[in-house]
Specification:
By secondary structure, this protein is α+β, with helices and mostly antiparallel strands. It has eight helices and 13 strands. It is about 30% helix and about 30% strand. The chain is globular, with a radius of gyration of 18 Å.
């Protein structure tokens, strides 16, 4: 019988196991993610890899103590999940592997005497929806436009409830002119896409991009959108709340420029 196991991913084995579906250092985004992770491990970040003897990496969960999370939330004392997914192949979907990964987070949070576990969710790409977490006794603690939710599972019912940081709209107003892309190496998928978007903005739309590369969790916690590690702002309006392709960017700009 094939063995499915969960492996702690660290500086010693990350190049062997890969992360976010990436394993080749020549793949844009992977070396950046590896360097980002090495800095975060000292802050308590953990990655658990769902590993199949047959098909290798088939999922992961990434989480970190709330004070170091890369989302604009107040979640000190909680373990905070950045991302979770299982099943690069369909054979590994809907088999309970996501629950296995989540239980690893619960175990570590309890071992570290944390108040509970928190996560930001939304419908659509790049984030898990709330249904999975609600099934595991999470509750909706806060909401933020356009459709983000902050969920929490408390171990200590008397602990203060996490919430989105206030002032996101005020922070958005500081990007009133031109085109700004805010990104971080926390999400490796944005590296290649952002490079293409910057080139398209300059060549196709004659727009010089203000590219903001977030360097630490405090900068991410003070971004103007709930995703934390990515958004695109044009003339004071958010045109992308999560990483998008260059083609999607062109479609958005063509509509705006009509």
């Amino acid at each position: 019988m094939e063995e499915i196991k969960i492996i702690d991913t660290n500086s010693d084995n990350i190049l062997e196991l890969g992360v976010c579906g990436y394993k080749n250092l020549n793949t844009p985004g992977f070396p950046e993610k590896v360097e980002w992770l090495k800095k975060r491990f000292t802050e308590g970040l953990k990655i658990k890899t769902l590993y199949s003897d047959k098909d290798k990496n088939q999922g992961m969960i990434e989480y970190i103590p709330g004070e170091y999370c890369w989302r604009p939330v107040d979640a000190d004392g909680y373990m905070f999940i950045h991302c979770i997914f299982s099943g690069f192949k369909k054979a590994y979907k809907n088999k309970g592997y996501g629950s296995m990964l989540l239980n690893e987070c619960f175990k570590d949070a309890k071992n570290e005497n944390m108040y509970g576990v928190a996560v930001v969710t939304r419908k659509g790409p790049f984030m898990a929806g709330n249904e999975f977490f609600l099934k595991h006794s999470f509750e909706i603690a806060d909401k933020a436009p356009p459709d983000f939710e902050l969920l929490v599972k408390k171990f200590n019912k008397k602990a203060e409830t996490p919430k989105f940081k206030k002032g996101m709209e005020n922070r958005l107003s500081s990007y009133g002119k031109g085109l700004t892309i805010i990104r971080a190496d926390q999400c490796p998928y944005s590296v290649k896409n952002v490079k293409a978007i910057v080139e398209t903005a300059e060549k196709e739309f004659d727009i010089k991009v203000n590219l903001v590369n977030l360097k630490n969790c405090k900068e991410a916690q003070n971004t103007p959108r709930p995703f934390g590690t990515f958004c695109i702002i044009y003339e004071g309006q958010v045109i992308a709340d999560h990483p998008i392709s260059n083609k999607r960017f062109m479609n958005i700009m063509n509509k705006i420029k009509k």
